[in-house]
Amino acid sequence: MLTTVHRLKKLSPQIISRLCRHTKLLSISVQAYSSAATSCDAHLVHSPFPDAARKNLPLPEFVVSDWIEPNGLIRDKVAIVDASTGQSRTFQEYYHDMGAIAASLTYELGVSERSTVALFAPNHVDYIPISLGAAICGCKLTPVNPQYKASELISVLNDSRSEVLISHWSILDVALEATRQAQYVKHVIIIPEYDDDPVPDGTMSLSSLKKHHKSMHKTRRSIHNDVSSHPFLLPYSSGTTGMPKGVCLSHNNITSNLQQIFEAESTFFPSDHKLISPLPMFHIYGFVVSALYPAWCGQQLITMSGRFDLEIFCQLIEKYQPQRAHIVPPILIALAKSPIVDKYDLSSLDMCLSAAAPLGKETEDVVKDRLSCRVKQAWGMSELSPVGTFTSDLNMRSGSVGQLVSNTVGKVVDSKKNKSLPPHQSGELIIKGPQVMMGYLDAPGKTTECLSPTGWLKTGDIAHYDEDGFFFITDRLKELIKVRGYQVAPAELEALLLTHPRVDDAAVTSVKSEESGELPIAYVVMKSDTISQHTCEEDIKEWVKERVAPYKRLTGVIFIDEIPKSASGKILRRLIGSSTS
Question: Can you say how many angstroms the Cα of residue 119 is from the centroid of all Cα atoms in its chain?
Fold first, then answer.
């Protein structure tokens, strides 16, 4: 063995990596080679999962490809149930509607490969047909948080250059207010409460789009030839720092990630199982993992379009008997502690998957004991389409976010010393794989800050791994606040606060919250005039509340004399607390 290792040191890192993947010299997933590699590649971690099949198809053709059974399409099987409204759709309705929507967008509204469609809606039974219809047109789809105020929606519409806005009827006032100031929106489509409901003049009903006499189920040929470099999904993320940016994800990014999830999940989550997920579909976790994945696999999804309510969630589990749940840590904490849980039969649940925010081992253990249901974690980010690590049902490690998904390589790096680290040492997690984004929309500088020319993505998360390649996320470098799994960019709130007529300077950081994970708190320097001196904490909080989505609201405002900054003007967040003393 020593002789073999000595010979390996003389080979290139690429050859060593390939040999380690396909021989039995090392049984664990962590591959280390020192002198043969640069110090930053001395410790690479590989996926233990089989390589994914990698079908190179545009997303719509990929998703419907497995809807075929010996007897044809899964015509009558229910694909989705919205328990908040009682609405549902079968796979046949999915198939018909996506084709008709694509034809309407193409032939009636002129949507092309250069267009962007914004989808501003809560969870809905037509969310996937709308998305796949847009994908058939070859355009970009940007899902937008339905909690956004008009100013937040305008920012996304303008930055993405959206020509079509598809809005749910319940938030139509916000949508119409935003379109009056949006630079590029030409058409507004309304998702009605009921199919035949009228819509305002100057807008179109989604119902009319679904009745188009033509049908398109084939993506344009140019997209077929370009699945790796043609963008489809455009979620907005703060990345590692700064304001939210459009994350360009190709058709191939999404289909690769679906197949990566499949390699970890399919054995234990067959097509006849049901999934319950209240996760918002505008969020990449809810969109890809909870909505697209079961659609592709022919599984039934039970979702909720209304505000999350624990008692309703428990009622739905008792009624529909799902085997799996996709949730976030605040919901798991409620399942661990609330007396409501004892009123319902949740015995159908075999596995809860938690992601989008850190989850402590203690909460995992309490839920396991209380519900007799296993709990596992996954980790990712919008820039990874979104999954980077996943936990197999067969090989779980409490407190871990799992192992790297198929076709993925990772390393933990000490950035100051520019070297990769062995097991049990903490550093920044860096990822490479087919699910890594194309880059940020119209922001090459921001792209190069986190994505190398060779495809390595700096995640901004602090992690360590063990000898078996299980990762543990312990902290983050990135300036990001996670509220119930939602991203809050400090820079966005700071920019807003600086528009307040009495605020001279501001910095935003986070405080811990058992219920929400984290909450934003502002440190504010007021202007020196007399009026500003009479402005109180509640005045600032209420002013911000009127202008942002609920999860971005400030939990507190602390007035200070000066915001600590570096010589270059960068806010020194680690020093902010001490500046109040």
Answer: 15
Q: Measured between alpha carbons, how far is 383 from 253 in angstroms, rounded to an integer?
A: 10
Please state, in angstroms and rounded to a whole number, the distance separating the CA atoms of residues 443 and 445.
5
3-class DSSP string for 498-535: CCCCCEEEEEEEEEEECCCEEEEEEEEEECCCHHHHCC
Q: Which regions of the chain carry the CATH code 2.30.38.10?
A: 2-51+397-476
pLDDT at 68 over 80: no
pLDDT of res. 491: 86
| 7 has pLDDT over 70 | no
How much is the pTM? 0.86
pLDDT band of residue 357 (cuts 50, 70, 90) is: confident
CATH 3.30.300.30 in the chain is located at 481-580
Query: Percent helix, strand, coil in the chain (nearest 5)?
Result: 35, 25, 40
Mean per-residue pLDDT, 241-247: 87
- At 251, the amino acid letter reads H
pLDDT at 577: 64
Q: Alpha carbon 63 to chain centroid distance?
A: 19
Mind listing the pLDDT tens digit for each residue in 20-49?
Answer: 333 322 333 444 333 323 578 889 999 999
Q: Report the alpha-carbon angle 267-273-278, nearest 5.
A: 110
Here the tokens at position 337 are 């502690």
Task: Quote the CA–CA distance of 436 and 433 in Å, as a whole number.
Answer: 6
Determine the average pLDDT of the residues in 88-92: 94
Tokens of 484: 């119930």
Provide CATH 3.40.50.12780 ranges for the chain.
Answer: 59-387
Residue 237 structure tokens: 């993320």
Which fold does the domain 59-387 belong to in CATH? Rossmann fold (3.40.50)
pLDDT digits (tens, 9 = 90+) for 370-414: 999 999 999 999 999 999 999 999 999 999 999 999 999 999 999
Q: Residue 129, preceding bond cis, omega within 30 degrees?
A: no
Three-state DSSP state, 142: strand
CA–chain centroid gap for 504, Å, is: 34
**Which has the minimum average pLDDT: 191-195, 407-411, 518-522?**
191-195
pLDDT greater at residue 476 or residue 433: 433
Beta carbons of 245 and 446 less than 8 angstroms apart = yes
Pick the CATH number of 481-580 from 3.40.1160.10, 3.40.140.10, 3.60.15.10, 3.30.300.30: 3.30.300.30
- pLDDT given for residue 361 in this prediction: 84
Q: Single out the residue of 99, 97, 98, 92 nearest to residue 77, CA to CA.
A: 92
Cis peptide before 386 (omega within 30 of 0): yes
Give the integer Cα–Cα distance in Å for 258 and 227: 15
The Cα angle at residue 140 between residues 135 and 146, in degrees rounded to 5: 100
Contact between 421 and 31 under an 8 Å Cβ cutoff? The reply is no
C-beta of residue 409 within 8 angstroms of C-beta of residue 403: no
Contact in structure between 94 and 295 (CB atoms under 8 Å): yes
By CB atoms closer than 10 A (0-12, 13-18, 19+), residue 122 is buried
Please report, as a single letter, which amino acid is at residue 429: L
The CATH class that applies to domain 2-51+397-476 reads mainly beta
Closest by CA to 405, choosing from 63, 41, 50, is 50
Region 49-53 average pLDDT? 91
